[in-house]
Amino acid sequence: MALACFGAAPAFAQDTAQPAPGPGRGYQLGLPQSGILTIQPERLFSESAFGKRVEREMEAEGAVLTAENRRIEAELRREELELTERRSEMEPQAFRALADAFDQKVQDTRRRQEQKLREINQMGEEARREFISASLPVLQQILRETGAGAILDHASVFLSADAADITSLAIARIDAVLGDGAAQEDGDR
Hints:
Layout: H1 2-17, E1 36-39, H2 41-46, H3 49-86, H4 92-146, E2 150-153, H5 167-178, H6 182-188
Parallel strand pairs: 1-2
Helix pairs in contact: 3-4, 4-5
């Protein structure tokens, strides 16, 4: 009798380990079999075609701004040297007025260039929001297909099986739907 009970236990455990497949349970090949999935949001964006395009655009804008900053810096340095050379030929009040005007010009220029940098960063943040918004239907589809109840940020999960991470799957599917996103942005303009 005891032997029969012990013999039946492994069979019972095997039967209950795999719930019966049903609609929305996600028992398709290549999909995780987990009630909770994880995703790496930074990797999702940066490794997607959309994210790579945005990164290239931001780098290009940043390079233009850097070149502009260097040009402006050289011009201001020349102007400062000319002002310094003229100092001995000028009345102190006249020199002070020119020096104050130059300082104001430097501060105004710095503010303009910092605003341009903020705009480039804002462009990246807006692109991320657009990406997440456009990606939600794909992520919801994966959620439905797997039968999972939630997708959590991988970084906030203490412990999980690697199989629960859907980042690579999501990147492939999002790329198939969105591509690099340039067509959507051109349509918005």
